[in-house]
Amino acid sequence: MLISFTAIISISCNDNEPIEKHYENIELLIDNNELKKAKKEINLLIDKHPNNSYSYTLKGIIETKLNENNLALISFKTALTIDTCNFKTYVERALLKINLGDYCGAIDDCNKARSISINYNKIYKTKGMAYELLEDVSNAIIQYEHSIKHGDCSAEIFHKLGVLYLSMRARRRSRIVCRAAS
């Protein structure tokens, strides 16, 4: 069934579909872990629409998943050159920087994203991850709590908070948070 699905979402950049439809198809390829095909399709789209920031953001996401980290950094930089207010690109680049061990760079990108949009919970979750990896438990907790405040009510975020509270020996609060995650 996946083979026929792939055939259905194959993109031809010669057609007249709106660019959003192409993005949707590429995102489906990414979700289905068909990364090489997704990269081929995003490159075709970039050839047709070279000044679209989101195309380069998607390319960077694909390259990150393919462990083409230097190329991903270039794609994210290109996206931000085209649109300096693309807060989601800053967050995606921050996630890559975390994978590369550049936790302070990730926090800086999250701060840039936050200066553009304060309501995107992924900013705080990503920033919390960076602080956690820096072993700055207090700031990690603050960021994860902001992530919840801005709509991330996933079990993962409550679990992270519970573990951090336990590490601070705040057992009572940890039990409460862990129950909320269940």
Give a verbal description of the structure:
It is a single chain. The protein is built from eleven helices and no strands. Helix content is about 75%, strand content about 0%. The protein is mostly helical. The N terminus is likely disordered.
Helix percent band: over 70%
- What's the tally of helices? 11
Question: What are the segments in which pLDDT stays under 50 over at least 5 consecutive residues?
Answer: 1-14
Based on helices, strands and strand pairing, what is the structural class?
mainly alpha
Major beta sheet, specifics? none
Can you give keywords for this protein?
mainly alpha; elongated; disordered N terminus; 0% strand; 11 helices
Give a quick summary of the entry:
The chain has about 180 residues and is an all-alpha fold.
Layout of helices and strands:
Blueprint: H1 2-8, H2 19-31, H3 35-48, H4 53-65, H5 69-82, H6 87-99, H7 103-116, H8 121-133, H9 137-149, H10 155-167, H11 171-181
Helix pairs in contact: 2-3, 3-4, 4-5, 4-6, 5-6, 6-7, 6-8, 7-8, 8-9, 9-10, 10-11
